[in-house]
Amino acid sequence: MTKPPKSAPIGVPPAAGPLPRRSRSAMRPKQPQPDHPMPARIDPCLATLVAKPPKGSDWALEVKWDGYRLAVHIENGGVKILTRGGHDWTGRFPSIVAEAPRLPLKTAILDGEAVVLDGQGRSDFGLLQRALGHRPASHEPGEIMLYAFDILYLDGRDLRRLPQRERRRLLEPLLEGRTGAIRLSEEVEADGEAFFRVACELGLEGIIAKHRAKPYRSGKRPEWLKIKCVRRDHFAIVGFEPSTVPGAIGRLLLAARQGSSLVYVGGVGTGFTQQSSARLRELLEQIPTTTPAVKLARKNAVFTRPILAAEIEYRAWTEDGKLRHPSFKGIHEINDVATIYRIEG
């Protein structure tokens, strides 16, 4: 009687030869995986511009920083810095890159603004541009700091669905009290209108209001609001640059008083229609001069006697003494030199 063949051990295929050896890595226990993989990039939440601050305790208030919006990705000691448009600018912010691994976390995405502060502690976009090498700089890249105002990912958790108040609760203990290149953008407990008024008096760009109960959503959202400070002053018109449109003005050339003289403070090319631009050019062509009121070399510029003043709305002054984001609002004759903006010092 023929004996039936012996069956193979359970779990082992009926194949000849020794069993394959398991590699050491296969024998190691699996490492725990994060609940959510870190996103490669998150489009930022953008604030909607409004005329005045919202009311009520549902809104958190912060200073509006004047710099570059950045997302700082921190993962196991490595750092990547992305701009609002998704460009990798890691190499441009060495101080932030050096500081990020020192934070008490393993993985995170911080949302914030890179700034350089002036002598009064205000963020200055012109100083930031110079520190980044766009122009001759009195500030070094190491002086650039990040004011972080949100956290989108932390140690394996995607936090975007949490309300703002919960994300803030997780961010604060990580940054509170830090004075290095990464700092906390403080929330201000105050009435919105009062805070806005003080911010403008201090020469800040404005304030931001965020709804405490809302999640983080990319794109321009009504749950984040920005309220900008604007200034309005009168400046002497010392000439103009013709437009490529026949008979119109490209830019008005403006001056302020400094001591007993006029100094050039930049040009303005927005705020007038084509029709008003043509009327303005016709008026200025009636008061030309061959001796400009300011020291200025401008190709194709037409210089005029400084007997007219332009009312200009603008946001701030640049480091080199020019108007930032000026817009033309009106014109009148200079009847009193006191009406022209005076630069002190």
From TrEMBL:
The keyword Amino-acid biosynthesis does not apply. PROSITE patterns: DNA_LIGASE_A3. Its EC number is 6.5.1.1. Residues 1-41 are annotated as: Disordered. Transmembrane segments: none annotated. InterPro entries: ATP-dep_DNA_ligase, DNA_ligase_ATP-dep_C, DNA_ligase_ATP-dep_cent, LigD_ligase_dom, NA-bd_OB-fold. It catalyses: ATP + (deoxyribonucleotide)n-3'-hydroxyl + 5'-phospho-(deoxyribonucleotide)m = (deoxyribonucleotide)n+m + AMP + diphosphate. Keywords: Ligase. GO terms for molecular function: ligase activity. Residues 137-228 form the ATP-dependent DNA ligase family profile domain. It comes from the Bacteria. Belongs to the ATP-dependent DNA ligase family. This is DNA ligase (ATP). The gene is ligD.
